[in-house]
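Key result, reporting period 2: structure in, sequence out.
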């Protein structure tokens, strides 16, 4: 009984915001109710914007909240409303500079709309994706933006919150925000041909990624009828700088007649530039290199990398805006979006400059 008595005294001191060992403890909803001379239920209705509270009483409660610097418990609010004001972004490789640039846009928009932003690096691991999904659903997550090539349709269909697919089409049933990958790839190869390149190799991304497949198709649209073309000119770079370096170096040693390279992302484009440098092949006078994405890294290489630039911030922003719209207006019809890429010519294709 003595222990219970002291516990009750401690709780009383906590609720009244008294100092305990010099530490001022946080106000509770009961403190707000007492100061405003209303019930706890009334304070709860004001905080959660539920039920009817007359304007005079509402102002008394809000004034008490400000005076006490009361911070509502987010967990309790999410349990009450079934919402957490929290959005998650799943990316497959946080080491790829494309995804931090994308994440910045999503974070900016979620913060502007009063949502908390959670970034999850999945490593293209399906089990890791499921682990994140289950953990966040238990916290009443409001929605997901997913960059994934491993998420299965049956798992997506079981989710009870909105999802936006980004960068690649995860499922035909999902709203997606992507770019015109196939047409952008065509433009990249046409740029090399316009420069006079006669043998153009392609460094491909993973086959299970829809955007990588579409970039491959764009390359093939331009070169498949060329007399010189064989499948030997398509190399697997796995969206990796190191892999691209190895396959490019080996290919250039075997086939010195190659005078153009199109890489399916900028990381592989940088790997191709490094491979050329290791063989003392002059870029762009002997070899022109173009890639895809438009990350900041391409501006810093020597020579600077020509690229088909995605509007990274814009598409991240749109994904977040569409998701928030779907969360807040669940019955509204929202269409998928496909944005255009833009040719950005830099030193790696500027022959004679």
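The corresponding designed sequence is given below.
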């Amino acid at each position: 009984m003595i222990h219970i008595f002291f516990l009750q005294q401690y709780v009383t001191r906590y609720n009244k915001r008294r100092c305990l060992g010099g530490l001022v403890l946080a106000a509770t909803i009961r403190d707000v109710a007492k100061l405003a001379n209303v019930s706890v239920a009334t304070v709860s209705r004001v905080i959660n914007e539920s039920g009817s509270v007359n304007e005079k009483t509402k102002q008394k409660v809000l004034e008490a909240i400000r005076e006490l610097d009361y911070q509502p418990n987010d967990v309790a609010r999410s349990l009450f409303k079934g919402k957490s004001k929290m959005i998650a972004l799943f990316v497959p490789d946080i080491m790829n500079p494309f995804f931090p640039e994308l994440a910045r846009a999503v974070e900016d928009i979620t913060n502007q709309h009063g949502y908390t932003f959670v970034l999850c690096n999945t490593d293209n691991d399906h089990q890791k994706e499921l682990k994140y999904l289950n953990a966040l659903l238990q916290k009443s997550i409001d929605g997901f933006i997913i960059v994934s090539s491993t998420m299965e349709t049956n798992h997506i269909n079981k989710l009870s919150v909105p999802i936006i697919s980004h960068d690649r089409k995860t499922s035909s049933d999902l709203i997606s925000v992507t770019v015109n990958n196939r047409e952008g790839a065509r433009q990249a190869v046409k740029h090399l041909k316009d420069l006079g390149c006669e043998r153009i190799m392609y460094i491909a991304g993973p086959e299970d990624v829809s955007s990588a497949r579409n970039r491959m198709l764009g390359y093939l649209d331009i070169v498949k009828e060329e007399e010189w073309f064989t499948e030997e000119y398509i190399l697997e770079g796995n969206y990796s700088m190191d892999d691209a370096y190895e396959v490019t170096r080996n290919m250039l040693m075997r086939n010195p007649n190659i005078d153009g390279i199109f890489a399916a992302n900028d990381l592989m484009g940088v790997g191709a530039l490094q491979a050329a440098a290791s063989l003392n092949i002059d870029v762009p006078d002997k070899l022109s290199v173009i890639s895809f994405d438009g990350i900041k890294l391409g501006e810093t290489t020597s020579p600077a990398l020509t690229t088909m630039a995605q509007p990274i911030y814009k598409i991240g922003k749109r994904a977040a805006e569409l998701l928030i719209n779907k969360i807040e207006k669940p019955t509204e019809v929202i269409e998928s979006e496909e944005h255009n890429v833009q040719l950005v010519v830099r030193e790696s294709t500027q022959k004679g400059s």
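Residues 1-23 have pLDDT under 50 and may be disordered. Residues 311 and 341 are 7 Å apart (CA to CA). This case is discussed further under Risks and Mitigation.
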